[in-house]
Amino acid sequence: MPRTALPLVQGTLDLLVLRTLASGPMHGYGVATAVHERTGGDLAVEDAALYQALHRLDRQGLVDAEWRQSENNRRARYYALTRAGRKRLREETANWRRYSRAVEAVLQGT
Predict the structure, then answer these.
(1) By C-alpha distance, which of 4, 1, 88 is closest to 44?
(2) What backbone torsions phi and psi does residue 105 show, to the nearest 5 degrees?
(3) Model confidence, pTM
(4) Banded pLDDT at 12 (limits 50, 70, 90)
(5) What is the DSSP code (8-state) at residue 23?
(6) Can you name the residues that pair with 78 across neighbouring β-strands?
(7) Distance of CA 110 to CAs 91, 94, 98, 102, Å?
């Protein structure tokens, strides 16, 4: 029986997008596909939420966007991390790891 994707924890989508874009410029569908594949299908990003996140990150100066031809010869908007985006990724990654260690400590009963 196929597993159902887990809902995203509030506040994690921006981190997932930034981390995915650290591999290089990508269009929105590529970001969603990469997250799905890297998590073995455990996480699925809804289109509306993804594009809201990409626009929000663009407004914050964390990603740059430009129109290009996709691998399917379609016009697509490609997103790439900015220097500020890389800095935010480092900060948010450290925060997430600290948070997950704290939750794991509670779950382990220590």
Answers:
(1) 4
(2) -60, -40
(3) 0.92
(4) very high
(5) T
(6) 27, 66
(7) 26, 21, 15, 10
